[in-house]
Amino acid sequence: MNRPRLLLADDHKIVLEGLRNLLKDEFEIVGTVEDGRALVSAAKRLDPDVIVVDISMPLLNGIEAIEQLRKAGSRAKVIFLTMHSDMTYATRAFEVGASGYVLKHSAPSELITAIRQVLKGESFFPRQYSRERFSRKPVVQLTPRQREVLQLLAEGRSAKEIASILNISSRTAEFHKYRMMHDLRLKTNAELIQYAIKHGVVTV
Length: 204
Prior knowledge:
Radius of gyration: 17 Å
Structural class: alpha/beta
CATH superfamily of the largest domain: Response regulator
Strand order of the largest sheet: 2-1-3-4-5
CATH class of the largest domain: Alpha Beta
Number of strands: 5
Distance between the termini: 41 Å
Order of helices and strands: EHEHEHEHEHHHHH
Number of helices: 9
Largest sheet: 5 strands, parallel
């Protein structure tokens, strides 16, 4: 009998190694990645049954990576394993198609339980969350490209660096930034980033 195939994504090698050791006896670990862009690429290539992913990752955060995969047609079950207990992040995770949400301070057995449940088509929520609270709509309405630019801005990248990473011009990167500031009625980079963090659009 084939074991369920897992792809693990976290920007800390020690966490990835710990997850591999925890899960390898029951599941097949088909890959590990350390940033959001690598996750998108690996998931398309490996087609795992379940993706276990952190929210806070460089280049592209976990939520944005999963949203891109959903738009590309990925049907993998997704469990977010994160330190973010704020409902804003949990809500965004389920809006982009997560099946489970596990906090990093949970017992290891909770992650295994979550994987088993999502493989059966069920959802997994931390005990302190109620399912009804996941019906809220996101506060910030931005395009996928704007959210990519915003995530990189939050990581301290310059317009030139953003342009290189996203394969766009510096002028286009600046345009996206100023368009967001205009639409959200914000005046500085700091205000833009603070607003996005508050509403769970980016992680730092």
